[in-house]
Model the fold of this input.
Amino acid sequence: MASEKKASFGSKVAVNLEGKFQDGTVFDTTENDIPFIFEVGEEDVPEGFSKAVDGLSEGETITVVLTPDEGYGFRDEALVIEISDELLEYEGLVAGDFCEVNMPGIGIVEVTVVEIREHTVILDFNDPLAGKTVVYKIELLKIY
Done:
């Protein structure tokens, strides 16, 4: 009898997901969309998300609570930076918008516009979910 295939670190997988804040507000979902495909354990996926998928079989569903230490990290106020408006093309942006900034030596980084002043722009380099506890419902669709 063949053993059931399970996801493990390094596996490429496809999942359906629903991410909610603790108050039940949905902030992310693949419902009516394409599945989220990623490699379990990759850097761009929160550690707790990968740990939740590790060991799942195709068709299995799990709900996991990610605190900041296993999710998106803690907010760091040192990552809220005021820069000269000469360094950023911000026409049409308003506070709360996301934009991409090319950081020398790092590359393209997504940031949140906090405030636009007369000659400066305040940007937040924290992940928008930093400092928050989130709940994910994850359904493993396929292991590649």
